[in-house]
Fold this sequence. Notes:
Layout: H1 4-18, H2 23-26, H3 51-62, H4 82-91, H5 103-119, E1 129-133, H6 136-157, E2 166-170, H7 175-183, E3 187-191, E4 213-219, H8 231-245, E5 251-254, H9 262-265, E6 278-284, E7 296-300, E8 312-316, E9 319-323, H10 333-369, E10 374-376, E11 385-390, H11 400-408, E12 416-418, E13 427-432, H12 439-457
Parallel strand pairs: 2-3, 2-4, 4-5, 5-6
Antiparallel strand pairs: 1-7, 6-7, 8-9, 10-11, 11-13, 12-13
Cofactor: pyridoxal 5'-phosphate
Family: Belongs to the group II decarboxylase family.
GO biological process, one term: L-glutamate catabolic process
Amino acid sequence: MTTPDEHIRRSERRHAFTGIGDQNQLNPLFAREGEATDFPLNALPAGESLPETAYQVVHDEAMLDGNSRLNLATFVGTWMDPHADRLYAETADKNMVDKDEYPQTAAIETRCWKMIATLWNAPDAELAIGTSTIGSSEACMLGGLALKRRWQLARRAAGKSTEKPNLILSSAVQVCWEKFCNYWDVEPRYVPITDEHKCLDGFELENYVDENTIGVVAIMGVTYTGVYEPVAEIAAALDRIQAETGLDIPIHVDGASGGMIAPFLQPDLPWDFRVERVASISTSAHKYGLVYPGLGWVVWRTVSDLPKELVFDVTYLGGHMPSFALNFSRPGAQVLLQYYLFLRLGWDGYYKVQKASQDVAVYLAGEIGRMPAFDLWNDGTDIPVFAWQLTKGHTDKWNLYHLSERLRLKGWLIPAYPMPDNLTDVVVQRIVVRNGLSRNLAESLVLDIQDAVAYLDALESPMPTEGLTHAFAH
């Protein structure tokens, strides 16, 4: 039988023979330096650590985030299948801007936006122009820049001032459009939403447009509620304005979410390039395009709708390439993931996935709408998103922020937030249904909401309102 001292001597001889003597490697998991002790939080560590140690520390910190599958606040995709995961790992090193080094990835990018142009009923996909972007925010910025430059060129040709461009937006617009107007010196003109007009629908549009208007943004899936803004009605209002004033104002459709829903679930709805005033459309591939975060698309009806002054000829690593993007180096893997999904799902597959999400949204909206505590804003039949508010007079003991915190105890992230200007006294709660929220999970969520409401309704005194989190995830 080996004594403890003999075991120690044998271990020392073995380490001397193999050259293994680093205390980090001798210590078992969670007892190694860096795990049993601590790394500095805000300073670069002085020395190295084992890859296993660094991995475990980062892995463990990431566990403190919420469960992404239960995050019903975000529109951003949180799941792809194992083949996509494998493809992602294999292509993570590809730089999308380096088209000379990765010509096949560049060719696949072109295939993708042409497929999307066809999906959006471009008159001729071969005469359209498009590009991938980091996300829908960059796509919106490019769409807005094209609107501004077209307006500037037309004004200069007519010998008129280009000093005061403005853009017409719903007050419920996504924050990226506020950034666009701020960054590029465009006056935002917000059309307020009201109880009667819950989105931008063309009502009184003539009070907002003038000769300095570069365009109107129509949202296919308002982030506050999920409803579609009626693009055809907005275009009809602009047609009337042009007949009366001569102002020819284009539309950019922000299809961040609806751009990959409407073609499959509402194919007869005229919102895309079938509406002649629509000059450009953007979407977020990492939302209902079903790709991991980091990809958007923007397509213009024709090449002439994208002013050539915005396209740069870039020499990079020995090759020449056109570039019209705000970012330079960016991942190419997500473009390949998009192409994988187009091949994997096809039109029928995308329909089935989006319809499954819509069915869950409609089910949840129906169950929540039947609860006496709530009044629905919409029912999830546009994009699979819906919102509700507290029924007036239901309670003075709690509000939707309290319900959001109560549901967070079960792992559900369901934000509550005030509506935009003119309706800031109205607080709503919103659910975003994405691929991965099954009917079974949805049924569990309904039970958790019912339990939370029963608990809150049974309170004998009002909940405190100090320190409540007013969360809104665009």
